[in-house]
Amino acid sequence: MNQPLPLARKESLIIKEVADETLVYDSNNDKAHCLNPTAALVWKNCDGKRTVDQLRELMEQEAGAAVPEEMIWLALDQLQSFNLLTEAPAKPVALAGLNRRTLVKRIGFAAMALPVILSIAAPTRGQAGTCTPNGQACGANNQCCSGRCCGSPGNPVGGCPANNTCF
């Protein structure tokens, strides 16, 4: 049976490399994802041509150590759940129900290299536009990103850069 090879989604995504993380912003659903190096390596190499085993071999070359196949499947499962793949092979029956906790028990100390994806919902432009940066004019606490408008009820002018500015 021919299964699809893992293929990373690239459309409607803004991708930024920062230190040891890859940040991916999905403009379709206004969600931001932070991929650790393990998840990022798998995702970047899901080109629709590499098999799961080839991804594992690539990971082993990068790590300089043996990598269990389950780690690649866990990364693919996470990538698929965050809609970062357009194609993904079906997980083998033997790995059904594989989760992070089970994998940590199986591989022990090497679990520090487990793929991790953190995801948050980013505000839409309309939502983000309701916040005034520090030093800008304001009339109430809810207009400031910090929630503190100088001279508004509950925020006396003392210690403010200027009256009616965000701080």
Layout: helices, strands, pairs:
Blueprint: E1 7-8, E2 13-18, E3 21-26, E4 31-35, H1 37-44, H2 52-63, H3 69-81, E5 85-87, H4 100-107, E6 117-121, H5 125-128
Antiparallel strand pairs: 1-5, 2-3, 3-4, 4-6
Helix pairs in contact: 1-3, 2-3
Low-confidence stretches: none
- The tally of beta strands, per DSSP, is 6
Widest sheet: strand order?
Answer: 2-3-4-6
Number of domains: 2
Describe this structure in words.
This protein is an alpha+beta fold. It has two domains: 7-122; 124-167, no CATH class. 27% of the residues lie in helices and 16% in strands. It has helices spanning 37-44, 52-63, 69-81, 100-107, 125-128; strands spanning 7-8, 13-18, 21-26, 31-35, 85-87, 117-121. α1 (37-44) crosses α3 and α2 (52-63) packs across α3. It is elongated and about 65 Å long. The model has no long low-confidence stretch (mean pLDDT 81).
Keywords:
6 strands; alpha+beta; 167 residues
Summarize the structure.
This protein has 167 residues and is of the alpha+beta class.
